[in-house]
Write a structure and sequence with these properties.
- With 193 residues, the chain is mainly alpha-helical.
- It has one domain (8-183).
- It has helices at residues 10-40, 56-75, 98-118, 124-145, 152-183; strands at residues 2-3, 78-79, 85-86, 89-90.
- Helix 1 runs antiparallel to helix 4, helix 1 (10-40) packs parallel to helix 5 and helix 4 packs antiparallel against helix 5 (152-183).
- The protein starts with a strand and ends in a 10-residue tail after the last helix.
Length: 193
């Protein structure tokens, strides 16, 4: 792994992570807390003896680790059409073949689904997995973005956090509502009060 001297800026990294990752994730945690209160009145969590035993905080943390790992595994290096491999190192490559970007996206979405599956709560657990995955990915993205003095990379971090967060959040919302509907006893066609 190579690092260009003076490329990484710790203060820019910390400010990017604080304002562009932590603040949106804390706001998402507030929404997840409200969803869990609503969800708790409607269903029981999966029993602790089953494979689905992650609480909300652990769900978010494991998802964050997997989101970060996805970014590191797929976006810290690049391959060109001649078979040359560039990286890993800082600055990270900024051009990737299509297959590599698709593989990264599939890995991020798969990691989110895996962690959501392991959560005790079908709806709020999925949302925690989405928030954690987005935060982990955007945090690692901030490492390379901290070397940019123009500020454009900060916009990329914000778009990454919001894009992954909202995209995965909507998918996990649909998944959670579907799972809750499946778990309702027999009268799925009758409206609930």
């Amino acid at each position: 792994m190579t690092v260009v001297a003076g490329y990484f800026s710790g203060t820019r990294f910390l400010s990017m992570v604080l304002f562009l990752v932590v603040v949106p994730t804390v706001l998402a945690a507030g929404v997840i807390w409200l969803v869990r209160r609503w969800e708790r009145r409607r269903i029981e969590p999966c029993s602790a003896g089953r494979a689905r035993s992650l609480g909300l905080w652990l769900t978010g943390m494991v998802a964050g680790i997997l989101g970060a790992a996805s970014c590191i595994v797929w976006l810290s290096w690049s391959a060109d059409c001649h078979g040359e491999v560039f990286g890993p190192g800082l600055p990270a490559p900024n051009e990737f073949p299509t297959w590599q970007v698709l593989a990264c996206g599939i890995t991020v979405v798969g990691a989110c689904f895996l962690v959501a599956y392991l959560s005790r709560w079908p709806l709020s657990g999925g949302l925690a997995a989405a928030a954690g995955t987005a935060a982990g990915f955007a945090t690692i993205f901030s490492i390379d973005a901290s070397g940019d003095v123009t500020g454009q990379a900060g916009v990329g971090v914000a778009l990454s956090e919001l894009g992954w967060g909202l995209g995965l959040g909507l998918v996990m919302l649909a998944r959670g509502l579907w799972l809750m509907r499946l778990s309702q006893p027999g009268d799925a066609k009758q409206p609930r009060p």
